[in-house]
Structures are given as structure tokens and as C-alpha cells.
Amino acid sequence: MELKKTILALSLTTTMLFSSAASVSANSSLTSTTTGLNEISKLQPDISKQELLSDVRTIAANTGQSEQSILEQIYTELKNNEEQGKKEKAISAEVTAYGGSGGTKSVGASTKGNFYYTPSQTAYLDHGHVGMYYTSTTIVESVPSAGVRTISTTARKVDSSGAVVKSVTTSTANRNNAANWTNTQVGQSYSYNFATNRQTGHTGAKNCSKLIWSAYKLNGSLDLDVNGGLGVYPRDVRDAKSTALVRNI
Amino acid sequence: MKKLLLVATVAIVLIAVLAFTKEKSIPDTSLLSLNEISEKDILENTKAIIYLSTTADQDIDNKGLSYGVFVQEDHSVQALAMNGLELGSIAVGKEEILLEDKNNISIIGDATKKFEMDTPQYTGERTGYLPKNELFFSIYNSGFVENGYSSEVRYGDSKGFKVDTIPHYIVASGTTEKSVEILTQDLEEDQFYLKEVTVDTELNVKDITAIQTESTENMQVLAPVLSDESYYYLIISTITSDTSETVSLYRIHKESLKQETFELINYKDVDLTATIPYNYKNSAAIHNDKLFYINGLGEVYSFHLPTTDVKKEFSLDKASNSTVRHNEETYFNSGELYVLRYNSEKKEPYYLESCSLDKGKLTDSVPIDGLETIINGSKNKKVYSYDLKVLK
Q: Domains, chain B, ranges and CATH?
């Protein structure tokens, strides 16, 4: 048993070391705008280069930054998000391989205004996914293509490893208002743009992390994004400093 | 230091081996095309069908997937791969079955027909077959459109499918011979409503009644809508704290619409997520004057319809009280409760049990060879079970 624990600890450490090295190398420079757009498209293929370039130009005009530096920033954020996803997936796989739970769970009930995070796989990236507790038993979340939807907490299944429920450290009024605001967004279409979603409007198409980020930005002026930047990703919301773990799902 | 390095190397090799053996790809012989299902008369030898799908959030690359898994009488499996549909399900008709994904409806019988639908759907609610009208249907929680909530309904048969909508968010549903009963929730009004949906040449939605509750805020629906000649039955729980919950049966008289509430289970100091049924859409049924309900702890309760007595009838053998699930499913049919179960210590970890509701005893248990390979077969996607139908 002790040997098993030692092997698990060592292998987790090894994975984290390798992942950290990869993360550092992600910050390499992009040589041109075209290279930047191409590299970003590999990490976020559902957004057209034209759409991305248009966003970049708008941000550049508003901030005075060069297009190149904005592309660098987007690329670094996407690459770091990808590396973090890989690292967390590897740790989760190792825990499961060594007798961890594996399997699935229902997200279960929680307090209105809390949110849940789950790892979420795509063919090219583990983005993660977040959804808001509109009531204690109803989730409002934005999912690809369908857009912002409601789903019962008994129906919503997630992986048993890595999923969490978190609360937001603010007043009950802010939590309730934020949850109510997400419900007003049900029916809005899905946006595939994570890279610059902090810069886009609060209403209209949005992805899962933008939904929760906007809800608390508009209701409590909270910035649920652990690292700022141009994009708010699901893990950025999960790890934001104004949040607290309620339970592991 | 050398020792540590050696141990670390061994660990990494071990993990690689474990990962390799865990993520076996699905053998070609287990995957079928729609045509092969008909040509090989797969239904003839099918004991059960399981529906697996990715969740909607995994469809971000438009590569969500689902499987209709045909469990054969020799315990082997053959699977039809389709696009994804979270909460999708299977309907069993007269010598035909309906399988669905976000874009298509497939009717499988002597001949196989596939209908591509104009609008994709991402959140299933219920599929079924209405014998009186000889029609299949499938209902989806589609989401808001310009003028309010819309739940799309696809209904038809092997000749074709029509599409209509129900303007409500649906939290539970159930079927009779000729209608679909739906429980809708108005989140603004904080109210549940019971309605009846009929389909023939066109779709009709009839209001039955509003459910008498103080608030729906801490309530969750745990079972399909059931009915007999005189009453509708709903199973809804009220969460009173993080570890306490009361599960109640709501009985509504079909003519007077009088409502009564009976306590089924009172949970105290338990992990409430563990008590959620394996599949809340297939967690209850009426048989021999009793309404049976199975919770997520594998406990089967009954409500005696003539006397209203509540009784814990039996429990599944070695059922887990953990919140972790391994695609367990339930299905009631002809006095039997069928349960798709998982035991990691068995050679084939997935197996299908059947229990007699009258005797409260296990009547059969068969392994399902190869289901684990299908469930773990996708490297970058995770499929979850959403339905089980047992044909024989």
C-alpha cells in the first residue's frame, strides 16, 4: 500500500514537472500576424480567422496595443489553458488507474448562485465546462450549438473525477441576481470564441464561462477570472479568487 | 536517488500500460451500420438496447457521438454509432424500434428508415410509442425561441416524421396508450403544471392542473409521470438541508383534480446526490396495484394504490451508497425490474440483472461482453448511459 502511494505520488510529480516545462515553452513568440492567426486557429478551430482578426483589431483600437502583442497574448492564454487541461487530465487518469473512483456522477443540488465545473473533452482541447445553479435543482449553462439552456441537476451527468461545485464570495442578493440574470440569457446562442470573450458584449451569443463571468460582473462587479487577460476560460472561473469550494462532485 | 528514479520510471511504464489497456479501441466487428442492422436481423437476437451519448458540452467540435448498443442473446454487443444527443433515448414499438441523435430519427425493423431533421436538438426528454395511434414520438427541451420556451416534438412512423412544438420547459414526462403526460416548470412563476399531449394528424397540448406546492425552488422530480384509470402520480422531493430530503408521491384524481401528497422516503444525514435514481426517467412503474420506485441506493419502495401504504420492498444486492455511478440504468417491464449494473471485480464488469417485483428476488443475471470497451472506446470523448430497454 505504501509503495502504491509512493509510485502514485512520484508519477503525479513527474507529470506536473513535464507539464510545467511544456507550459513555459508555450510562451514562445509568434513571428507574424498570419502565423499568429494560424497558430490560434489550431487551438480554437471553430472561430474563423477573419472573425478573430476583427476582434483583435477592435481590441487594438481600444487599448493602443499592437495587433501582434494581442495575438501573442491570446496564443499564450490558449496554450497555457491547453497545457493545464492536459496536466489535469493526466493527473485524473493516474488517480483513476490507481484505484480512484472513475465513473460518473449527477451534479446534484446546491445553493442558487453557486456554479459547477467539470472537465470537458473536445477532439482538440480539454476546455472544461461551467454551469450556474439558477435554483438549487436547476442549472443554466451555455453548451455548443444549443446555446444557453436549462437542465435539471438530476439529469446533468459529469465525470466523477475533477468536477466541483463552487460558491462565489459575495452577498446573497448578488448571488441571486447573478443567477436570475443567467436565466434571462436562456435561448441566447453559443459563441465558440473563448480567446477574446472578456471583450465581447454581455448580451448576445456567449460560451459557458462568459455566461457566469458576465453574471457576476453585472451583479456585484466581481471579476471571476483568475488571470485577467483577453479570454475567460472555464478553469479561469473555477480558480477565480472570489470563489470557494463547496464540494467535490 | 537512483532508487527513486527507478521507481518513477517503473511507475510511468505501469501507467502507460494501464492507460493502453484501459482505452481499447472498439473492434470493427462490434460496430454496425444502419443497413447492417437490418441485413443481419440484429433485432431478432437482441435482448436489450442501451443508449450512450456524450453530453452537449462535448459537442463543441461538432463531434459529439452516441451509440445504440444492441445486447445480443449470446451476451455479445453490437453498436450503431450516431451523432451525440444528451439525454437521448430509445422507443420500442410494434416490431420496430426508434433510435435518435441530434440530427436524425432512425426506425429499425424489417426495413430500416432514417429521417434527417431540419433542426438539430441537443437535450432529449423522452421518446416513446403510442400504440393507439401507432406513432413514435420524441420530445426535446429545445430552449427559448423569440416568443418563449419551445420543446420540439418529432412524431411519426416509418412513412415520415412531422415536427411541432410544446411551448413549455419540461421536467418530467410519461406515456399512456394514447397520450404523453408532461410536467412543466415555469421558473418565473415558480410553479409546476401537469399537461396532456396527444399526437395524431396534429399535436395538441391540454392543461390538466397546476401542482399545489409552496415553491418549486428546492424541489426535484425523481420519476416519470405515471397514471392509472383514476389518478396521475408524480414523485417529487423537497430538499430541506444539505443532507435531508423528503421524497413525496403526489396523487391527482383524474376527474376531480383533487391533489393528495404521501411521504415515500425521508432521508436524514445522507449524501443526497447518492439517492438520485440511476435514471429518473425510468425509476418508477405501476404493477399489480403497487407503484414501485427505485432510488440511487438500489432500494425499491412501493406505494400500495388501494390502501396508500408505503413499504420498502427490497434492495439490490451489494448496491453502492456512493455518489459515483458506472452507467447504471433501470427498466420496468411486465413485473420485472431490469438493472444495468457494474462490478469492477468481474471479468465483464457490466451485467444485466432482473428482479421479480412480486417476489422481491433476483431472477436472472447475465454478463454483457464488450460494453466496457464501447464505453471507454473513445479517447477524447466520454459517453454516458441515458436509456435501457429490455426486449426479451
A: 30-390 (2.120.10.80)
